[in-house]
Amino acid sequence: MMQRSSVLFAMLEAVQAGTNPVMSGADIVHYFGISKDEPGVIAKDDSHSRKYGGYEFWFSNESNAETFEASPTKYMPLWGGF
After folding, report:
1. What's the confidence (pLDDT) of residue 48?
2. CA distance readout (Å), 80 to 9, 53, 61, 63
3. Is 16 exposed, middle or buried (0-12, 13-18, 19+ CB in 10 A)?
4. Is 74 helix (H, G, I), strand (E, B) or coil?
5. Cβ density class 57-70: b for 16+ within 10 Å, e for less
6. 13-39 tens-digit pLDDT
7. What is the pTM of this model?
8. Which helix (H) or strand (E) holds 30?
9. Residue 2 in contact with residue 72, Cβ under 8 Å?
10. Residues 6 or more apart whose Cβ sits within 8 Å of residue 40
11. With pLDDT > 70 as the criterion, what percentage of the chain qualifies?
């Protein structure tokens, strides 16, 4: 069985990085702390962005950006989506 990080890196290599943020700017760290009925958060701009693997991720606040930066593979979309 492949490790999650191996799958993520394989997907990153298979998808060419574009100029738009991953998942149209959805704050992927925010999604890990909400219930299934709560709406997600879309960042309004790149003021709290981070780059990883050639992709740009947007966050709704600096705390979420720092959380992602500390452990990016924990928050990467498992099945792509970017």
Report:
1. 96
2. 10, 13, 23, 24
3. exposed
4. helix
5. bbbbeeebbebbee
6. 444 445 688 888 999 999 888 888 888
7. 0.71
8. helix 28-31
9. no
10. 26, 27, 30, 31, 34
11. 73
Rg of the chain on CA atoms, in Å:
12
Geometric angle at alpha carbon 73, from 37 and 30, rounded to 5°: 30
Helix (H, G, I), strand (E, B) or coil at 43: coil
| Residue at 11: amino acid letter | M
64-43-9 Cα angle (round to 5): 65
